[in-house]
Amino acid sequence: MIKVGIVGGTGYTGVELLRILAAHPEAQLTVITSRKEDNLSVADMYPSLRKRVSLKFSSPDNADLTKCDVVFFATPHGVAMKAAPQLISAGVKVIDLAADFRLRDVTQFEQWYGMPHSCPDLLQEAAYGLPELNREAIKPARIIGNPGCYPTTIQLGFYPLLKAGIVDGSHLIADCKSGASGAGRKAEIGLLFSEINDNFKAYSASGHRHNPETLEQLQKMSSSPVGLIFTPHLVPMIRGMHSTLYARLNTSIDNKTLQSLFEAAYQHEAFVDVMPFGSHPETRSTRGSNTLRIALHRPDNGSTLIILVVQDNLMKGASGQAVQCMNLMFGLPETCGLALLPVSP
Ligand SMILES: NC(=O)c1ccc[n+]([C@@H]2O[C@H](COP(=O)([O-])OP(=O)(O)OC[C@H]3O[C@@H](n4cnc5c(N)ncnc54)[C@H](OP(=O)(O)O)[C@@H]3O)[C@@H](O)[C@H]2O)c1
């Protein structure tokens, strides 16, 4: 059994990790930390885990994470990079759900996250945790920078097109919407029910932290410079992410070939579903599962393609993807513990 630690077990991605790992046949939950809920039983905080998780939260200062085989950091940025050097030298693998190990460019990290990187050497060896595009690097890695939720949809949506070189990569557009759980479980006026419900708004339209991460990865798919306009929105739902992507074709190609391009790219992927051409995937069709769904549209058979991508932000957008990486790192089938069907309605 893989002994698992979770730092930040009280947050939304933390409790999602607990839900997945409590039912994972090869994982043994070993340490779960919280600064605020030290000594509280996990099931007292989350009755959904009663009789499945018997652990108590312990403060990160008292928790012995070195007895784990792998530690997930479901924490704000800046936490994992402080603890990683000690864990790595103790032989413990690290999967960070925050941004500490996503951006290869330290200057970009420091600019966007407003803090110096405390272990740039480890950053250079970390693997970007998007299995569909980086599987071979994830398998032997000691540290994973788990992708952001928006970047996952944007990369998997644009990948087949950029790889084939059939779109103008310099002018990609991503119009994305996230449910409120994407902002975490913190108390903030803007996240109150009365502020979010019956409301709809964009945020960070002039520049979002996921921009440099997404660009860094998209650039790897193309030999010419990639440009991205990315506008995130907050929608009044709890879980779910819907990204509407736009790209302009630079060659003549028929719709059947376009569809085949996507189907071929993801034919062996357990968690990517390419729907029939012209479909409208719904966020609800992914709720609680690690599945991401994609559908292609081409209005008036013109040169602009629309790629619709949906996922559960807490699953394929965060904790499900992190467990997918853990499975790869420990030589398990990638789908182990992740065969969860979406919850509907
Ligand atoms: N929510 C999503 O959809 C999503 C998707 C992709 C990635 N992410 C990323 O995943 C990370 C966690 O997100 P979340 O939504 O789960 O956040 P959250 O709900 O706000 O939870 C954060 C957790 O971190 C703990 N924590 C905070 N500061 C800490 C510190 N200095 N040291 C140790 N523990 C600390 C908190 O517990 P205590 O205060 O009790 O210690 C809490 O359990 C973030 O970096 C986020 O950007 C989130």
Care to describe what's here?
The chain is α/β, with parallel strands linked by helices and 345 residues long. The chain folds into two domains: 2-125, Rossmann fold; 149-313, Dihydrodipicolinate Reductase, domain 2 (2-Layer Sandwich), CATH 3.30.360. It is 30% helix and 20% strand. The protein has eleven helices and 14 strands. A seven-stranded parallel β-sheet has the order 3-2-1-4-5-7-6, sandwiched between helices. Strands 9-10-8-11-14-13-12 form a seven-stranded mixed β-sheet. Helix 1 links the parallel strand 1 (2-7) and strand 2 (27-33). The protein is globular. The two termini are 35 Å apart. The structure holds NADP nicotinamide-adenine-dinucleotide phosphate. NADP nicotinamide-adenine-dinucleotide phosphate (NAP) binds next to helix 1 and helix 11. NADP nicotinamide-adenine-dinucleotide phosphate binds at residues 7-14, 34-37, 60, 74-77, 79, 97-98, 148-149, 181-182, 184-186, 313-314, 317-318.
